[in-house]
Amino acid sequence: MPAEIIDGIAIAAKVRARVAEDTAALKKRGVTPGLTAVLVGEDPASSVYVASKERACKEAGMNGRSIRLPASTTEEALLAVIDTLNNDPTVHGILVQMPVPKQISEQKVIRRIAQQKDVDGFHPFNVGKVFTGDVDGFAPCTPAGVQVMLAEAGVETSGKDAVIIGRSNIVGKPMAALLLQSGKTANCTVTLCHSKTRDLASHTRRADILIAAIGKPEMVTADMVKPGAVVIDVGINRVEDPSAPKGYRIVGDVHFESVREVASKISPVPGGVGRMTIAMLLANTVRAAQLTLEG
Ligand code: NDP
Fold it and tell me: Is the peptide bond before 99 cis (omega within 30 degrees of 0)?
């Protein structure tokens, strides 16, 4: 029997509805959650992401704002913009769209954002909180979204072998940290694989929960998956397809059609994790606004 689909669109809509409710409650207390996205340069994909974040904020009743700076912006000028946002009480979340032009240090930018406004969860302070299991921190949106998907899909994680392919700071490593903690939708035995892992399939075939965050189109094939495993595909890859209206289509890191025949549950691409990332960004921003009331 083909795997059950873990529907990221429906789960993200649920998260966003909860965000809208929390936003309405905050507004009654005089606080409108505000997210400001800063985009440096004119990268078309980044521009689309920033516009969709702004739109999503507005749909949830939040203040969504974007600041667009030229590609020639100096590091000093960008840090000054961040300082202004750090000091603006109407801004609860700050996001600088990555990558930034090469004259700007990504690490300096990440470290300059006030940790209580770091809704991307990239500041070392929040990274540390996630790794130490301190739930007060902001977890990066994509792995946090995967955890919500597992919970909503009713996946039992406790004691399970979770294998993650990809060790980036924004997906793989925080994903490992979240699943490793003791707590709800966690308590996994985690294996983190990367490009230097020997015999990748010997690891993936042990996985009760397999998470692919590689950036290689359809790399995970059915022979790499244990029958009955839960498979979450984080990958977003553009592949040429002359028959598609735009000349390309979007696929994940998992070969969906074949793996679907082996797995018990699977998240598709598109319609999976991608939808969760923005939803979790809104959720983090609302929580940042709530925290200002708690002092
Ligand atoms: P990175 O390029 O930063 O990391 C990719 C990871 O995959 C690296 O750790 C790399 O290993 C590993 N890797 C590459 N090739 C292999 C291989 N052949 N075998 C095993 N491991 C391999 O990517 P990101 O983590 O930023 O993103 C991963 C994917 O997820 C991309 O497709 C991206 O577009 C997508 N993504 C989707 C999001 C969403 O909202 N759904 C959000 C963020 C990312 P090494 O470290 O050794 O180089």
Answer: yes
Say if CB 139 and CB 263 are below 8 A apart: no
CB hemisphere CA count around 153 (13 angstroms): 27
Nearest CA residue ID for atom 35, ligand 1: 235
Q: Measured between alpha carbons, how far is 184 from 38 in angstroms, rounded to an integer?
A: 34
How far is the centre of ligand 1, averaged over its atoms, from the C-alpha of 8 (Å)? 19
Cβ atoms of residues 174 and 203 within 8 Å: no
CA-proximal residue: ligand 1, atom 39 (nearest) = 274
Task: Give yes or no for a cis peptide into 270 (omega within 30° of 0).
Answer: yes
> What's the whole-model pTM score?
0.97
Mutate to test the pocket of ligand 1, among 194, 218, 237, 267 (most ligand atoms within 8 A of CB): 194
Domains within the chain, CATH numbers bracketed: 30-114 (3.40.50.10860), 140-275 (3.40.50.720)
Using CB atoms within 10 Å of the CB of residue 115, give its burial: 0 to 12 exposed, 13 to 18 middle, 19+ buried.
middle
Nearest CA to ligand 1 atom 42: 142
Structure confidence by residue, pLDDT tens digits, 30-88 = 999 999 999 999 998 899 999 999 999 999 999 999 999 999 999 999 999 999 999 99
Maximum pairwise Cα distance, the chain: 57
